[in-house]
């Protein structure tokens, strides 16, 4: 008889916090799961149409003479640039002094947000009083395979603690369940922005008591073989939608919800399926990566996601005037993982991303100021040393 799956350290971390803080959990009452909107067959038909139209648009834009992706970007070191940055620290073993430093840097640089795990939300809210820097909290981080009710409790606790934004990890294993490893696609990997280290996976996906994970993306089975999709079996799109819609209903606007797709683990068609479901659940952003599992943001993936966001939330001739995401607000794209320099940031923003998840925000702004100075004086920027709390080049933080 198979034993029950062992929870990962990330899951234990959240369960222990909620148990110790009933005012953010049990005292708020029960959480409820939304009902389905369509059958899996109906979702599959809708998603297939999105895939067909968006992939055709991407091919056209990439052809010689195509319009490509060149969006207006904030100038280096500007306030507009700083307000694209989610200043991030997601190490499981982050210390109070590191969180204080993260918030201090965010105050000085006037970033859009600090992005942290649930136990640090209230401290960050207190640290950032008197500023317009908001607090973002990850949910279901970083595996995404947590039970939906656990994700709902975590999301509700984050908002109750003062988080204005939620970065929610998609249960992408549902999309990849029937497929072999992702094959070569339009969105080929960009090794220059590979943000994973062995330490990230070891530290953040390690099951309790050193036992092997029995399910999810870090299990032995998942790492070795993935069966072909059974003939006639359709992906359980309804399960994904119900989870996303339930969290949206529990945490309505103005709470901003960003869905982390973990694009390095998905094919282009799976990325588009996730984007379609995010738009249907009225989420605000689709986001590339956790930074803890495979390559981070790549230009091809950002370009694909931007094209999908435009198609799914804008009335145009190409989509027949019937956007999936209503309300007149466009779903946006966050690039995260491997964004470590002003040049990285510029490329992602030029491709259409409007938010950047990075632990290198201070470095990016510093490089931007040096670029502005060099342009004004005609001198080439000199070499500099990373000083601040940026540890994206060290182990333990994929951003």
From TrEMBL:
GO terms for biological process: carbohydrate catabolic process; deoxyribonucleotide catabolic process. Gene3D superfamilies: Aldolase class I. The keyword Cytoplasm applies. It comes from the Eukaryota. The keyword Transcription does not apply. It catalyses: 2-deoxy-D-ribose 5-phosphate = D-glyceraldehyde 3-phosphate + acetaldehyde. InterPro entries: Aldolase_TIM (IPR013785), DeoC (IPR011343), DeoC/FbaB/LacD_aldolase (IPR002915), DeoC_typeI (IPR028581). Its EC number is 4.1.2.4. It is an enzyme of class 4 (lyase). Keywords: Cytoplasm, Lyase, Schiff base. GO terms for molecular function: deoxyribose-phosphate aldolase activity. One of its GO terms (cellular component) is cytoplasm. Residues 316-337 are annotated as: Disordered. PANTHER family: DEOXYRIBOSE-PHOSPHATE ALDOLASE. Belongs to the DeoC/FbaB aldolase family. DeoC type 1 subfamily. This is deoxyribose-phosphate aldolase. It comes from Karstenula rhodostoma CBS 690.94.
């Amino acid at each position: 008889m198979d034993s029950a799956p062992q929870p990962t350290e990330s899951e234990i971390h959240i369960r222990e916090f909620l148990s110790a803080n009933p005012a953010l959990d049990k005292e708020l009452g029960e959480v409820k799961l939304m009902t389905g909107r369509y059958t899996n067959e109906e979702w599959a038909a809708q998603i297939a149409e999105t895939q067909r139209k968006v992939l055709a648009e991407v091919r056209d834009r990439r052809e010689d003479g195509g319009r490509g992706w060149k969006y207006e970007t904030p100038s280096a070191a500007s306030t507009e640039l700083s307000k694209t940055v989610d200043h991030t620290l997601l190490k499981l073993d982050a210390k109070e002094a590191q969180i204080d430093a993260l918030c201090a840097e965010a105050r000085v640089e006037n970033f859009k947000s600090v992005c942290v795990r649930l136990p640090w939300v209230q401290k960050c809210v207190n640290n950032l009083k008197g500023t317009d820097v908001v607090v973002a909290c990850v949910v279901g981080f970083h595996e995404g395979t947590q039970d939906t009710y656990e994700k709902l409790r975590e999301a509700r606790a984050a908002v109750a603690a003062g988080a204005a934004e939620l970065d929610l990890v998609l249960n992408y294993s549902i999309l990849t369940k029937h497929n072999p490893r992702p094959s070569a696609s339009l969105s080929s990997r960009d090794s220059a922005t590979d943000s994973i280290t062995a330490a990230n996976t070891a530290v953040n996906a390690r099951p309790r008591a050193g036992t092997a994970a029995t399910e999810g993306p870090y299990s032995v089975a998942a790492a070795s073989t993935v069966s072909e999709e059974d003939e006639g079996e359709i992906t359980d799109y309804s399960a994904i939608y119900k989870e996303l819609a339930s969290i949206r209903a529990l945490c309505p606007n103005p709470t901003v919800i960003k869905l982390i797709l973990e694009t390095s683990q998905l094919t282009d068609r799976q990325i588009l399926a996730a984007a379609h479901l995010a738009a249907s659940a009225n989420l605000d952003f689709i986001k590339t990566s956790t930074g803890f599992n495979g390559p981070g943001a790549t230009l091809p993936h950002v370009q694909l996601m931007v094209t999908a966001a435009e198609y799914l939330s804008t009335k145009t001739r190409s989509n027949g005037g019937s956007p999936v995401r209503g309300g007149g607000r466009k779903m946006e794209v966050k690039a995260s993982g491997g964004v470590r320099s002003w040049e990285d940031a510029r490329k992602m923003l030029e491709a259409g991303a409007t938010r950047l998840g990075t632990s290198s925000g201070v470095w990016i702004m510093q490089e931007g100021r040096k670029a502005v100075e060099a342009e004004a004086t005609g001198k080439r920027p000199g070499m500099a040393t990373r000083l601040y709390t940026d540890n994206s080049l060290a182990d333990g933080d994929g951003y």
